[in-house]
Amino acid sequence: MEKINIQQPEGKLGVLVVGISGAVSSTFIAGTFSVRKQLSRPIGSITQMATIRLGQRNENRFPKIKDVVPLASLDELVFGGWDIHDENLYESSLYAEVLEKDHLAPIKEELEQIRPMTAVFDQNYVKRLHGTHVKSGESKWDMVKQVRQDIRDFKAKNGCDRVVVIWCGSTEVFLPASDIHKDLATFEKAMKENHADIAPSMIYAYAAIAEDVPYINGAPNLTVDFPAMRQHAENHNVPICGKDFKTGQTMLKTVLAPMFKTRMLGLNGWFSTNILGNRDGEVLDDPGSFKTKEESKLSVINTILQPELYPELYKEVYHKVRINYYPPRKDNKEGWDNIDLFGWMGYPMQMKVDFLCRDSILAAPLCLDLVLLTDLAKRCGFSGIQHWLSFYFKSPMHEENQMPEHDLFIQSVKLKNTLRMVINEKPVDFLDETIELFR
What end-to-end distance do the CA atoms of the chain give, in Å? Predict the structure, then answer.
């Protein structure tokens, strides 16, 4: 196994968040400040709380990931970002109503010091939002130059050695890849010509990669998952990953669907509906934005169950997903699933799941992990799509000739085996006990 030459996480790590005033972003940043002050624990964060097995089971080596993997310290994170609203992060956190005032009070000063930079905004891509704190320019290429300058200015002002950009903004309307996304030269020409098929998220992604900065896509938007942007990332030796944070209902699907398939249980139908009342719910009330989210959610079951291999079990599955904007719930989402199964001799069964969750509370630790792990990837010299981070996404990025891996437990093994290789430890294949049987 070739040893990976890792650049140590020295100095400050800038974390630039697109949509920094949103519920997910403000909860992520406020929670990180709270953990830094030892006022709370980073529950839900793999990098901060999980252990990793090293060596054989009988060696009993189970250190915490953060104690053996050279991750950036939370104390070295510096936050900034862009938003279409100009309130400081304390005001944003109050508006989101995710965290209680008692939890925000001890970190109020830190939150008040963070105010967003003007955002790239196009009403055509988020019909239900109205931006007041936005950039203007002659072309989308000009917007790219402005975002690149923002990154340079933030890095210099805050004395950052490295930067990561993460999209926590709203879901853009559905946009399939077109001819302008096929190669880098055509894509750059299209930006200069203000082509309609270039969304704001693409402008942020292109600018970040051009500045040698890793990019994380936390929404189901078409952003970095097309040939031109993959080429751009490879040219700059930059890691990219996405898309769409895997939090509530879809996380359950990546656990339950593998269970059904592993047991060879059949599936007739899976009906999923959500009620959500924050800005994300408002945006997804628009059919165009919902179409983007729907594509992300629907892909999970089909990929896991492989109906082409098991037609008698999964060929005729009826899968329906609904998201309903319901303001009284705010950030407290409820996901209902009705699952119609069949088993031995075709006898029917049902499973019903009602998950009352907190959307931003589930997403915040994913943001922290992805920032730290993507920074690690950059320091390891990794570039392009980071398949090992598929654990965190509804629609993991993949090459066109590959199938994505959706099974949460297989994704977890890939994640931890990559970390083992990074620290020059052997991957775990769980065959040690089986080998003993043949000795």
Answer: 26
4 Cβ partners below 8 Å, 6+ apart? 380, 381, 421, 422, 424
Residue 271, pLDDT above cutoff 90 = yes
**Contact assessment for residue 396 and residue 385, using Cβ atoms and an 8 Å cutoff:** no
Please state, in angstroms and rounded to a whole number, the distance separating the CA atoms of residues 34 and 36.
5
**What's the pLDDT band for 292 if we cut at 50, 70, 90?**
low
- In this predicted model, what pLDDT tens digit does every residue of 3-37 receive, in sequence order? 788 999 999 999 999 999 999 999 999 999 999 99
List the structure tokens of 332. Answer: 């407290």
Mean pLDDT across the chain = 93
Residue carrying structure tokens 């089986």: 434
What is the DSSP secondary structure assignment for residue 237, as one 8-state letter?
A: T
pTM value > 0.85: yes
Domains along the chain with CATH numbers: 12-245+361-422 (3.40.50.720), 249-358 (3.30.360.10)
Alpha carbon of 86 to those of 92, 113, 145, 226, 330: distances in Å?
9, 12, 21, 32, 21
